[in-house]
Amino acid sequence: MRALIQRVTEARVAVGGETVGAIGPGLLALVCAMRGDDAPRAAALAAKIARLRIFRDGEGRMNRSLLDIGGAALVVSQFTLAADTARGNRPGFSAAAEPALAAELCEAVARGLEALGVEVARGRFGADMAVALVNDGPVTIWLEV
Q1: Residue 145 within any structural domain of the chain
Q2: What CATH number is associated with residue 61?
Q3: Tens digit of pLDDT for each residue in 60-114?
Q4: Is 140 a catalytic residue?
Q5: Which of 34, 77, 97, 137 is most buried, judging by how many CB atoms fall within 10 Å of its CB?
Q6: Closest Cα to residue 32, out of 72, 83, 88, 66?
Q7: Domain total in the chain
Q8: Active-site choice (6, 9, 55, 78)
């Protein structure tokens, strides 16, 4: 599983002009299921996202997690994180999981975060989504489990 995590003061996702998910302070998680991924990897990714210490403590250091601050997560599927750009100018996406499994695993990440006590908003799998965010810092982290 792969994820691009952005620390945000706010984020939202819209489909067809309608907001389908929105959060205040927390993390935007763009999530990609890869071929060979399974439920244990989705659970591991959820745990990593929830416990990643990238929020400021009282001294301004990145030392607090999403759980520590009581922040929310916006989970958005993004198969393009599987892009292979090694050859040519057109990315290949054959490393991405098949859509049915990818939908299941992205939802498993969201449910895993909820099980840990994180408030979760979601994008809509397979939809043409417009994602808006205010990146705090900016802080953007690549995760792979």
Answers
A1: no
A2: 3.50.80.10
A3: 999 999 999 999 999 999 999 999 999 999 999 999 999 999 999 999 999 999 9
A4: no
A5: 77
A6: 83
A7: 1
A8: 78
